[in-house]
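FORM 7B - TANDEM STRUCTURE REPORT

SECTION 1: FIRST PROTEIN
SEQUENCE AND TOKENS:
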Amino acid sequence: MQKENIHIVFGRTSKITLIDSKLIDGNKNQIISLDDILNIGPACDINANEEIQKRIDWLQKIFGDNPNPPVEQDLKNIESIVKDADNINQLFIWTGSCASEMISTARLIHHFSKFDKPIFIANFNTPVRSIHGNIIYPKALNQTATFQVKDIIEQFEQIDKSQLQDWRNLWEKVKSENGPLWILDKKGQVAVEKIDYFDSFILANCGDHFQKAASVIGETLADIHSDIGDSYLNWRLKHLALNGKLETRGRLIEIRDYEVKKISSPTL
């Protein structure tokens, strides 16, 4: 049986981008998407049923039951990769400059590195050209256009033993500290923060007149330059509203269902 290469991407958009690039030979390569956003909520690992359930319960409490979080599917994918390690030639991980992707990479490497197989990591410090010819630096595959993938795929770097240990250390750190929110600090390192870390950014984007929650969240995402996602910010925005920090109009459900504004000052 011919050994195959495994390409790990993060999220369905990234998988579609890589497939549409037509740079991956499906006869020799398999593309697997890991979709759980690991920089929010309690950490979990394979064969840790209590931790897994705690993570599922936390995500469903915050974001609702539909759709179900991809916690278990990601773990099954990791188990499958580890189980089939003898039939894997090389592992390519399309890790961007995002806390979630870095943590997911650390968890995978923690399990796969013991098989002494070549592991390559994407280099998203690679300059690519936009459709208008400008030089840009996409942070991750989900920010990369299909025609730009060829520039990234040529810049994969094999990680050495020291780097492997750094990735394993990161996963041990995430598990031991088990914080509710992880971001990239100013040095590009994964760091833990309090669950309300982005609340001040959200409040700063709320005005004296009602505006769509989607607008507030969009402006906040632009400000924080983080891979936290609009679902998390929607949860925090609703939390602020329910705790009397903002006035609302509409149903506090999805970001297009309601509007928010600052609390009106009483007139004298």
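SECTION 2: SECOND PROTEIN
SEQUENCE AND TOKENS:
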Amino acid sequence: MGILEMFEETSVKGKLENETHFRELLNTFFRKYGRFTLSPEIKNASYAHQFYSLKNFLQGNYPVYYYSLFEEMDSHGYNMRFELIDAAKVIGRKENRILKSQLFDYLKRSPIISEITKDATSFHVQSNCFNEIIFESIFDYLRKYPQALYWIENYIIEQYCHNISWELAKSLDNANLITALIPSYFTKEYYHSYVEHEGHIIDAANNTVYDRDVYEYLFQPKELSNTPGDIIEEKYREVISSDLFNSLRDKNLPQALVLGLKGQYEVRR
């Protein structure tokens, strides 16, 4: 299997399979409980986006149906770790990183989350199903690294994990750029990049910073590449100049993802 075929099998096929699961979950829910009014833009969006829009709508307005949706999520094999990941992502946003009891109360409506607290430096999310999750907001963590904070405050970071992690790895001393496969919502895995820095994992796309052991427990990554930030450009040039990557040169893939694909290909070969 070539590198392009490997990438498409992991990324494209994985997205299609998860979309199918979201579609089936939504169809089952609507058959049982009726349809809720969603805006035309949402109705035309992906099934994943429709699901999250519906879940947020029910969480804020119809708790009874919200818990019914959770029953369907569980029966369809939804990866409930995303309840913790998504809660941390919301808390870590710049506008939310200061203690707000109303936000915590809203997030605690999730059946997966039992308590949320904050100490001097960190947030704590407790669950009856999983270990306690402790993390910092990325904005708090990077305040002492203005050269790295610049990228967080001036560029889109959500859904651009490969690009922003690349810049952070170059901006921080003693940082490593990591690209890994992460278990997805239902089946398959997706490519994700983040930065290791002094024992911490900086997950910019999720607005959060974890100790490495907490991150590995929550996200369950399979590392494909782990490259010191001061040589990532050199390593990228080596990879992209290889004949193996001819099929990817016109794909305009993020540089961090290309390093990960090299690592994945070498494991599979």
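SECTION 3: OBSERVATIONS ON SECOND PROTEIN
Strands lie at 113-118, 123-127, 133-137, 175-183, 189-197, 200-203, 208-211, 222-228.
The first helix runs from residue 3 to 10.

SECTION 4: SIGNATURE
Preparer initials: ____
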